[in-house]
Design a protein that fits this description.
The chain has 318 residues and is an alpha+beta fold. The protein has 8 helices and 13 strands. It comes from Streptomyces resistomycificus.
Length: 318
């Protein structure tokens, strides 16, 4: 029976890969190997979790086994313990690998703000925008965008503030939809959006699996084509773990963009740098070291005229 022998060989290889991954990790490799060894599609894994009283989306499971995100919230850790039982793994085997990655002195955890995960969440973003009846082109052209990001004492993304200068390119525009993509482990339902100047908050929508949140900022006027408008809003986050970079993506070319990242005096990085990408799939380029200012503990970049693509600031912790 050659087919039976071939199947047995595949099972043996999968089991050997799982044993190796459980011994040496990392977590996402072990999880992926365990799911493969049991031959379960992610939909079935999700179904088994629900029978254990744990709700986890298929998207989250996919991110976990890819290493794009890590389970950190209490509900997620409950899911990991349930997965050990569902996948017939030794007790504490996956939890132990998670703890090891938390204590990794080399800092080899996945990037805190992976743009790969944002691309994978693009379908979610489109869905959330559709719920707000908001097209990708909101009728506004950005003339200037100044953004200030705060990193807290726990190395977390504590919050950010955005100051926009826009011009309407059609009549009747009366709102802007802000998008916030939290770091891995963030809790979107605990993130707060504050209207600070010339706007007020409207509807909010979020997706816990991807950490994407969208918020309407309503103007008190309807703009006509050619009108300019200034408004300012803030996002209070602080719900995730250590942050390692902040990125901003741009569609069509626009005006000036300035990004400042300020660190708590009790949590200063060892080095900072700027980078750019033509697209999320392209390699990073334009790396430039950024000196940390003395008293205010901040770094910044300025793009006089943004082009389609991505720019950001990354930093290293000890």
């Amino acid at each position: 029976m050659p087919h039976a022998t071939q199947h047995a060989d595949v099972v043996t290889v999968a089991t050997a890969e799982l044993d190796s991954a459980l011994r040496g990790g990392p977590f996402h490799v072990a999880l992926r190997a365990a799911i493969a060894a049991r031959g379960l599609p992610l939909q079935r894994v999700q179904h088994h979790l629900s029978r254990h009283g744990v709700k986890v989306g298929v998207t989250s499971l996919s991110y976990w086994q890819q290493g794009a995100r890590r389970p950190q919230r209490p509900e997620s850790l409950r899911a990991v313990r349930a997965l050990e039982e569902i996948l017939q793994l030794p007790e504490e085997s996956l939890i132990r690998l998670l703890a090891q990655s938390d204590e990794d002195p080399a800092g080899q955890r996945p990037a805190a703000r992976s743009y790969r995960s944002l691309v994978e969440a693009s379908g979610v973003l489109e869905q959330l925008l559709a719920e707000l009846d908001s097209p990708l082109d909101g009728g506004l052209h950005t003339l200037g965008h100044h953004e200030r990001v705060r990193i807290g004492a726990r190395r977390e993304l504590a919050g950010r503030e955005s100051h926009h200068i826009v011009r309407a390119h059609r009549d009747g525009v009366d709102r802007f939809v802000a998008v916030h993509h939290g770091d891995p482990g963030c809790v979107p339902e605990r993130i707060r959006v504050h209207a600070l100047e010339n706007c007020r908050t409207g509807r909010l929508r979020s997706d816990p699996d991807t950490g994407v949140l969208v918020a309407e900022l309503l103007f008190d006027t309807r703009l006509r084509a050619g009108d300019t408008f200034l408004f300012r809003y803030g996002v209070q986050d602080g719900t995730a773990g250590a942050s390692r970079e902040y990125v901003r993506g741009f569609g069509p070319a626009g005006g000036q963009y300035a990004l400042q990242v300020r660190f708590d005096e009790h949590a200063l990085p060892t080095r900072c740098h700027r980078f750019a990408q033509h697209s999320a799939a392209a390699p990073r380029s334009g790396r430039q070291e950024l000196p940390l200012t003395g008293r205010h503990h901040s770094v910044h970049l300025v793009e006089p005229r943004v082009r389609s693509g991505i720019v950001g600031i990354g930093w290293d912790w000890e």
